[in-house]
Design goal:
Structural class: mainly alpha
CATH superfamily of the largest domain: EF-hand
Number of strands: 4
Number of helices: 11
Strand content: under 5%
Helix content: 55-70%
CATH class of the largest domain: Mainly Alpha
Distance between the termini: 35 Å
Radius of gyration: 19 Å
Shape: globular
CATH topology of the largest domain: Recoverin, domain 1
Length: 213
C-alpha cells in the first residue's frame, strides 16, 4: 500500500499531503485519504491523467457528461481555483470542505455568492440571478412558467437589494441569506461528516446500480 501511495504522489498533478490538507479544511487526515481514493476514481473515469476534467465532474455529480448545465459549469469553475480547466486533488478537497456540515456559514455564503456572480463583477445582477434560477429548476426537473420565474426573481431582488441600486453586493447577500438560510441548504452535504475508506466503494456501488436501472 505504501509503495502505491508514493507512486501516486509522483504522478498525480496537484497532489498535496493529506496532513496539510486536513489542517486547512474541515476533514481529518483519514477522511482526506478516503477522498484521495474517490478522487483517483473520478479522475480516471474518462481520462486517466490524475485530474478531474469537466466531463468527469459532471458525470460524477449529474450522471450525464453531455448535457450542458449552467449550474454544473459554475460549480466546476469554482472548484477549479487555478482556472486551468481541470480540478486537482488539493482543489477538490478544499472546495468539498465548504460543503462539510461543520464548515463556517460565512464560507458557504461566500461560495454561493460567487456561484451566482456569473460575470465575476463582485455583484449579483438580476439577469444573473434569473439564469441561475432557471438552471437550478432545470436540474431539479421543475417546470415553472416564465411569469412565475419573474415573480421569484423580482421578489428576491426587492428583498435583497436594500440599497436599491439594481444589484446585490456581498454585504446585501450575506444579510439576505442570514434571513433566508434555506438559500444555502444545498451548500451542506451531510454525508461528508462520515467519510471512510468505504466511501469510494459506496459511490462505485451507486453507479453500478444506476447503470442497471
Amino acid at each position: 500500500m505504501g509503495c502505491f501511495s508514493s507512486k501516486t504522489t509522483k504522478y498525480a498533478p496537484g497532489y498535496e499531503d493529506p496532513v496539510v490538507l486536513a489542517s486547512e479544511t474541515s476533514f481529518s487526515v483519514s477522511e482526506v485519504e478516503a477522498l484521495l481514493e474517490l478522487f483517483k476514481k473520478l479522475s480516471s473515469s474518462i481520462i486517466d491523467d490524475g485530474l478531474i476534467h469537466k466531463e468527469e465532474f459532471q458525470f460524477a455529480l449529474f450522471r450525464n457528461r453531455n448535457r450542458k448545465n449552467l449550474f454544473a459549469d459554475r460549480i466546476f469553475d469554482l472548484f477549479d481555483a487555478k482556472q486551468n480547466g481541470v480540478i486537482e486533488f488539493g482543489e477538490f478537497v478544499r472546495s468539498l470542505s465548504i460543503f462539510h456540515p461543520v464548515a463556517p456559514v460565512s464560507e458557504k455564503i461566500d461560495f454561493a455568492f460567487r456561484l451566482y456572480d456569473l460575470r465575476q463583477t463582485g455583484y449579483i445582477e438580476k439577469e444573473e440571478l434569473k439564469e441561475m434560477v432557471v438552471a437550478l429548476l432545470h436540474e431539479s426537473d421543475l417546470i415553472l412558467s416564465e411569469d412565475y420565474i419573474e415573480i421569484i426573481v423580482n421578489k428576491t431582488y426587492t428583498d435583497a437589494d436594500t440599497k436599491g441600486d439594481g444589484r446585490i453586493d456581498k454585504e446585501e447577500w450575506k444579510e439576505f441569506v442570514i434571513k433566508n438560510p434555506s438559500l444555502i441548504k444545498n451548500m451542506t452535504l451531510p454525508y461528508l461528516k462520515d467519510i471512510t475508506l468505504a466511501f469510494p466503494s459506496f459511490v462505485l456501488k451507486s453507479e453500478v446500480q444506476d447503470s442497471e436501472m
